[in-house]
Specification:
By secondary structure, the protein is an alpha/beta fold. The protein has six helices and twelve strands. Helix 1 runs antiparallel to helix 2 (about 30-50) and helix 2 (about 30-50) packs across helix 3 (about 85-95). Bound molecules: 1-O-pyrophosphono-5-O-phosphono-alpha-D-ribofuranose, uracil (URA) and magnesium ion.
């Protein structure tokens, strides 16, 4: 795993630690409204941290009393996410990058213990990605297969100039796979966990993010 393009919010004590702790806590995470809202709050913090690395330029603003100069984003990024579980994290990012265009990917893991994980990708609706700053948000970076498959599909809609991948919780194996497949990406995490289990779930992790946010899939 390469550390130079990796940023982990909970390595520094901040409110991010509280949001991740509540997401994981079995006594809190059953409150689905709070679970979604904590993913959204983490998305807001990740968006703020990413914004510090984006291009800004000085612009003049007119107040009712005078003119003043300030640094503003040169362009909004494109925000992309993977349905379902990505929605609350994405919404937090959209709260801050409030004029961003969006790309949606429908994908889910077909989980069979001890065998190679399959990702079904059945839907992709994208804005033009050519030369854009792309932020791809998905709360759980487990094996990294969903993110890489989504990104490869998105490349049909243009090659971004810059790629940021944002997740609430990741495994070291998943981050290494994403870095190998998308070496140009900067990876932003709420937390880095220990490992994957035999069902490719993150340990300690938080369980199934999509089910906790939206209910069990049948
Ligand atoms: O890194 P990976 O091993 O690919 O796993 C991560 C994926 O798993 C979850 O989605 P899931 O397949 O559970 O679909 P859901 O959002 O419908 O719950 C999660 O939101 C990621 O998209
Ligand atoms: O730990 C995991 C892995 C994939 N998807 C989840 O929601 N949790
Ligand atoms: Mg799920």
């Amino acid at each position: 795993m390469e550390r130079s393009n990796l940023r982990i919010l909970t390595e520094t004590p901040s409110l991010a630690n509280h949001f991740v702790a509540e997401l994981r806590n079995i006594h809190v995470q059953h409150d689905s409204l709070r679970f979604r809202r904590n993913l959204e709050r983490l998305g807001e913090l990740l968006a703020y941290e990413i914004s510090k690395t984006l291009p800004f330029a000085e612009q003049t603003i007119t107040t009712p009393l005078a003119e003043t100069n300030t640094m503003l984003l040169v362009e909004q990024p494109v925000l992309a996410t993977i349905l379902r579980a990505g929605l609350p994290l994405y919404q937090g990012m959209l709260n801050y990058f409030d004029k961003a265009y969006s790309t949606f990917v429908g994908a889910y893991r077909v989980e069979e213990a001890h065998t190679e994980l399959q990702i079904n990708m059945e839907y992709l609706a994208s804005t033009d990605l050519h030369d854009k700053i792309l932020i791809l948000a998905d709360p759980m970076l487990a094996t990294g297969r969903s993110l890489v498959k989504a990104y490869q599909g998105m490349l049909r809609h243009g090659k971004p100039m810059q790629v940021h991948i944002a997740a609430a919780i990741a495994s070291p194996e998943g981050v290494a796979y994403v870095q190998e497949q998308i070496p140009e990406a900067i990876v932003w995490l709420g937390a880095m966990d220990e490992r994957l289990n035999e069902n490719f779930y993150i340990i300690p992790g938080l369980g199934d993010a999509g089910d906790l946010a939206f209910g069990p899939k049948i």
